[in-house]
What we know:
32% of the residues lie in helices and 27% in strands. By secondary structure, the chain is α/β, with parallel strands linked by helices.
Amino acid sequence: MRVEARGFTFEVTEGGPEDGEPTLLLHGFPQNSVEWERVAPILHAGGLRTYAMDLRGYTPGARPHGVEAYRIEEYVEDACAVLDRLGVKDAHIVGHDCGAVVAWWMAIDRPERVRTLTAVSVPHPAAFAHALRAD
């Protein structure tokens, strides 16, 4: 489906039980939401309602110009706006690679929107910064 949010059009693949707990899936680089097609059925079997969105820059309707348009805060606001348009107050957030970075920042900046966080292949930003400095 297409979701209009923040002046853009995001491609979102939804699935699972209508009454399942909402779960937002954020893909990595250089994939798009298709990355989740083998994972989603497992989540659906566990009773979760999934929404796999294509992040800005990866979907034709959301490719703004200029480097500043790709700051992490913009991705977080996109995710929250898509949830708003879907009528979802808070969700389980699952991110892989750059999607995990978005998920971490969403948990940091918008914790009221995050039921649980699953970050695949990316550590907490503070732990990563410490490792860069100390290791």
